Amino acid sequence: MTDVKAFSWDDLQETCDFLKNHSGETAKTAIVLGSGLGLLMDHLTILKRFAYGEIPHFPISTVVGHSGELVMAEIDSKRLWIMNGRFHYYEGYGMSQVVYPLRVLKLLGVENLVVTNAAGGLNADFEAGDIMLIEDVISLLPANPLRGKNDNRLGPRFPDMSAPLDEQWSAQVKESALELGYNLKSGVYVGVTGPNLETKAEINYLRIIGGDAVGMSTVPEIICAHQMGIRVLAISVITNESIPKSAKEFTHEEVVEVAGRAGVKLVDLVKSNLP
Question: Name one GO biological process term (predicted).
Fold first, then answer.
């Protein structure tokens, strides 16, 4: 897909105006919920919700386990934007469409972003149901969300990606995990195209290049948010072992089901560490 410029500054302004006019207020923190991780919604006070289809210029989520709505909510008196479902390159969207909501959220005043996902475990020490703090990423995606003419109002042409995830925020989450008694893992997330799950040879390759978990999202969002100066915290729920202890095959529905069960830990960690 040719996606050098799938939106204009006027498009962004139109989307922002729509959300401002219909939400009344905004928030400085946003959360992206991955497959099966909508449990957090049960812990929020919903102030306003927008189906993606009603927001000007937004794509529409087509994946099972993604509700497909942007929500203004409060949790412990903290106001948040929640992306309940995200967009993926494998759905047929270009990279600039995948990250379009983040561009909008930045213009709405978001300064902090929590990105969550369901991922396959590459590290032999990981088991289904583990939570992994993402400390770095590897992109094997065929395109970059910054490709095309750069608009300096959104960030620099060549952002430094040596530390795209906020180290102080990550350290805070590690401390919280110890206090909660959770065995929090940490590692490198590899972003791939999907939608097929990986072959055995690909799994071996991903381990060799340094991956601890693999998934089909998150990396474009981290790149885009970091370019715009947004602080980023990223967490994976390990929903299946990419090095299975049996010959059993995994389905997306099972991935969503495991994410839902493990989401309790994720909710605790997110609630305890909101700015």
Answer: nucleoside metabolic process
Is 1 in the active site? no
Lookup: tokens for 51: 């189906």
pLDDT tens-digit series, residues 217-260: 999 999 999 999 999 999 999 988 766 554 456 565 666 676 66
Instruction: Return all residues near 160 (Cβ < 8 A) that are at least 6 apart.
Output: none
**Is 93 a residue of the active site?**
no
Task: Enumerate the β-bridge partners of residue 131.
Answer: 237
Exactly one of 186, 236, 240, 242 is catalytic; name it.
240
Indicate which residue of 23, 35, 84, 112 is catalytic: 35
Helix (DSSP H) and strand (DSSP E) numbers for the chain: 7, 9
**Residue closest to 113 by CA, chosen among 270, 261, 272:** 270
Fold classification of 9-272 (topology level): Rossmann fold (3.40.50)
Would you call 216 a catalytic residue per the annotation? Answer: yes
> Is residue 96 annotated as part of the catalytic site, yes or no?
no
Q: Which residues of 220-246 are buried (b: 16+ CB within 10 A; e: fewer)?
A: bbbbbbbbbebbbbbbbbbbbbbeeee
Tokens 């495991």 locate to: 258
Threshold 0.85, pTM exceeds:
yes
* Spatial distance between the Cα atoms of 143 and 48, rounded to a whole number of angstroms: 34
Can you read off the two tokens belonging to residue 192?
């791939």
Annotated catalytic residue within 217, 236, 242, 273: 217
Q: What is the CB-side half-sphere exposure of residue 57 using CA atoms within 13 A?
A: 22
Q: Which of 27, 69, 83, 88 is catalytic?
A: 88
